[in-house]
Amino acid sequence: MDIGARIERRRATTPVTNLVVEWNALSPVVHVPNPVGRGSTLERLLDALDPLFDDRLPPTIHLHGPPGAGKSALVSALFSQLSERLSPTHGTIQTTTRGSNEGNFNFVYIDARRSNTVFRLYRSILDALTEKHVPERGIGTGVLRRQLAATVAQSNPDVVVAVDHVDECETLASEEIVELFDGMSESLSVLTVGRERSSGERTLEIPAYSTHELADIVTERASQGLQQGVLEHAQVKTLAEWADGDAHDALAALFGAVTLAVKEDSNRINDRYLTAAMDAVPRNAVPLGIVLSLPEKRRSVLGKLLELDDCACASVETSAAAIAAETNLSVGTVTRYLYELAEAGVLERIAATDSKRSGRRPSKLEPRFPTLVFRALHDE
């Protein structure tokens, strides 16, 4: 906890509402530079990366753990710090126990949700390693691989790549990603991050947060993002217990409660807002990072779906017709998008209970993601 930094932030920051000092500090999709409650896991990860401090590439590593356990927050923050200290574009590190490091590594963090094909993965890494323009189309995957292999081989600093959110429905598998870098292992090391355990030799497991750790996270974020005293300790405890180890859900509910309070111009977050916000975060919710990484038209369809009244939401067909009427998309296209989003788990098809049709009942769609936060972020 940097007390001086907190004081200066309050001096320099003009509150955006009578509640909020900084929205980003509350957002479940924004990672802070120093994650809370992950000290022991950080030490184990640093142990696995220890060869870096002797100017050697570490082995391939897979970090895995349950949703909302802070995997992305930890790895993105760690790679930012390592890049600042061990890459050639920044300063050098010298210690009394090891030789000086003159910046022998390039660190690249990749979100597999946005680089969800082999082509995009190769391109993202190559784009991070070179100042030359890397085309987004009109070039084959094989050509990109050869360019990346040549760049890595000719690069004086070795390369350490973290590929986050692997093994999901729409992303590459961890084992496949490791195989994609065959032949580059002398100059490139890979850290994959996901929910599932890998069959690789070196794996690290990160546990779910305890209730106490979650309470610390909510308290820390609230202290950065909210005016003092608008969130009570009992409410923090309620959020932490409800979230059951998932920091994403806890922060999504906090963010949602704040949006409701701001909408009603309240100067406090009362229990009614908190309850409504928790109800807007489904159990085993699809992470907002997945939803926000969807193509723009699909995100737009989701936004329109959330605006429909109960009558328009009676079935997939009525929803598609109502959305098409508000956009420049055809009913057929919207219908296809809705079914694809349901197959991906972003929406859930459930049988309509109030249908008057005979025979098979139509299905309607329910969101499987935090709706209040999505609305706020999608409308930005």
Automatic annotation (TrEMBL):
It comes from the Archaea. Gene3D superfamilies: 1.10.8.60, P-loop containing nucleotide triphosphate hydrolases, Winged helix-like DNA-binding domain superfamily/Winged helix DNA-binding domain. SUPFAM superfamilies: P-loop containing nucleoside triphosphate hydrolases, Winged helix' DNA-binding domain. Keywords: ATP-binding, DNA replication, Nucleotide-binding. One of its GO terms (molecular function) is ATP binding. One of its GO terms (biological process) is DNA replication. Residues 35-191 form the Orc1-like AAA ATPase domain. This is ATP-binding protein. It comes from Haladaptatus pallidirubidus.
